[in-house]
Design a protein that fits this description.
177 residues; alpha+beta; Nucleoside Triphosphate Pyrophosphohydrolase; three-stranded antiparallel beta sheet; 11 strands; 37% strand
Length: 177
């Protein structure tokens, strides 16, 4: 094991380890922040049903990667309500989030001063009733609709891609059966 710089933070490289909690191959977050896993709520925006099902993805503000709307859960806020709030603010979506998460995934968020923090994201099905033309972050992000399989191929987080592939498989089973 040796310490190497990564994204402005010294991290431990452990030979032979694969990806762990969203970190690049063999990287582990600095142990000083490893025990501070935080939670975010994410909306998995679904439009339509069966083979016509579409997933709404947005781009991140800085790296322009494709992702679902997600953000911090405010104190005393229900996680599914945080997901619905983020769907409106980041993607301009009206609809309703199920109160029970359909899954979760982990990733490493780069914080100010180069700190990498492990984040657990609770994912809530969000039934889209309307795509708005005006919303708070519309000038900062791109919004597009994709099939579940296409969305799974575009997102960087493996856990999120797995959830999306599951939606695609479920739609194919309904169409065939």
């Amino acid at each position: 094991m040796r310490r190497v710089p990564h994204a402005g933070l010294w991290v431990r490289r452990i030979a032979g380890l694969g990806k762990r909690k969203g970190m690049p191959d063999g990287m582990m977050p600095d142990p000083r922040v490893q025990d501070r896993t935080r939670r975010q709520g994410a909306a998995l925006p679904i439009l339509g049903t069966g083979p016509a099902t579409r997933i709404v993805l947005i781009t991140s503000r800085q790296t322009r990667r494709w992702l679902v709307p997600k953000g911090w859960i405010e104190p005393r806020e229900d996680p599914h309500r945080a997901a619905a709030r983020e769907a409106f603010e980041e993607a301009g979506l009206a609809g309703e989030a199920d109160p029970t998460p359909i899954g979760a995934y982990a990733y490493a968020k780069r914080m100010p001063r180069g700190i990498v923090m492990p984040i657990e994201v609770l994912v809530f099905r969000f039934r889209v009733t309307r795509l708005l033309t005006d919303w708070p972050e519309r000038r900062e992000r791109e919004r597009r609709l994709f099939t579940p399989d296409a969305a799974a191929a575009l997102v960087a987080e493996p856990g999120l891609a797995e959830l999306l592939r599951g939606l695609g498989a479920a739609g194919r089973r309904r169409a065939a059966g």
